[in-house]
UniProtKB/TrEMBL annotation:
PANTHER family: N-ACETYLMANNOSAMINE KINASE, ROK (REPRESSOR, ORF, KINASE) FAMILY
Recorded superkingdom: Bacteria
Name of the featured protein: Glucokinase
Transmembrane regions: none
Stretches of the chain forming a coiled coil according to its record: none
Length: 318
């Protein structure tokens, strides 16, 4: 257990909080101050194919790094943004891409590891949304959808000026809206989900199926497809067009349901820039057709790779 000397500070003190960003490829941690400044950080690869305790061991290693900071004893709470589904009521996580964690009691285990500090849990899409509303491209917007488009597709909502995580911390999970009723099966058990068409691995696979081939370095990632699309390769362009239309359909459905005025898109696939955003904005005009959705704008996320940590910190202070 990573206990701190003396009593654990109150959550309401202006000291730092502990933030954890847990995904299928990495587990990151930081001490974050009240202004969003990162005071200390650590990172470990996620042993995603290992058993539950091995994955927890990577979390413990990150926390041990942070506990070595002289600021650790001032940290009053812990926020976790995790790949999902999560259950914030029960404090459990079942990340699709970490099969060893099924209904894993993450909140209780982290509470023990951090000397009894209070722990808040949200999904990674909700965490990114909290970060963007606090410090990023959704700042000043009362009604927003924020998306993470990477190895999966997640999201979160701001409604009426407040983060809307929903009862279990999963509200806004746009990646598992079905936009192709006859589409391919998704890992979630559904069919034709936004994630199944727009996530990086599926985007790259579609480009390969269309005739695109990696260069001499063998890089078959979505980033490599983006470079090829920027150079005009037809199959790469078609893969991004398909992903953009899936995202546009999901964004428009959300706008028609809850009346958002901005969609903020982040994650690795969004790093393609206008290769993604140009067809996304064009497709949105085809789907967001009701009068109250026509003014919807789509913008890149602003908090970058620290979005998960900043959002977890915001959850800890909520």
């Amino acid at each position: 257990m990573l206990t701190a000397p003396g009593p654990v500070p109150s959550v309401t003190t202006p000291g730092p909080v502990v933030a954890l960003d847990i995904g299928g490829t990495k587990i990151a941690g930081a001490l974050v101050d009240a202004a969003g400044g990162i005071l200390a950080r650590s990172r470990r690869p996620t042993p995603a194919r290992e058993d539950a305790e091995t994955v927890l061991g990577a979390v413990e290693a990150v926390l041990a790094d942070l506990a070595a900071s002289p600021l650790w004893s001032a940290a009053g709470a812990v926020g976790i943004g995790s790949a999902g589904p999560v259950d914030a009521v029960r404090g459990t996580v079942s990340p699709v891409n970490v099969p060893g964690w099924r209904d894993f009691p993450l909140v209780e285990r982290v509470r023990r590891l951090t000397g009894g500090r209070p722990v808040s849990l949200v999904g990674d899409g909700v965490a990114m949304t909290a970060a963007e509303h606090w410090l990023g491209a959704a700042r000043g917007h009362d009604n927003a959808l924020c998306l993470v488009v990477s190895t999966g597709v997640g999201g979160g909502l701001v409604l009426g000026g407040r983060l809307h995580p929903g009862p279990t911390g999963n509200a806004g999970h746009i990646g598992h809206l079905s936009v192709d009723l006859a589409g391919d099966p998704c890992a979630c058990g559904g069919r034709g989900c936004v994630e199944r068409l727009a996530a990086g691995p599926h985007l790259a696979r579609h480009a390969l199926d269309g005739g695109w081939r990696p260069g001499p370095d063998g890089d078959a990632s979505a980033a490599a497809v983006a470079r090829a699309a920027g150079a005009g390769h037809p199959a790469a362009l078609a893969a991004f067009e398909r992903a953009a239309r899936a995202l546009a359909a999901g964004i428009a459905a959300t706008a028609h349901l809850v009346e958002i005025d901005v969609a903020v898109v982040g994650g690795g696939v969004a790093g393609a820039g206008e290769v993604l955003f140009a067809p996304l904005r064009r497709a949105l005009a085809d789907y967001a057709t009701l009068s109250f959705a026509r003014g919807l704008t789509v913008v890149p996320a602003a908090t970058g790779t620290d979005a998960g940590l900043l959002g977890a910190a915001a959850a800890a202070r909520a």
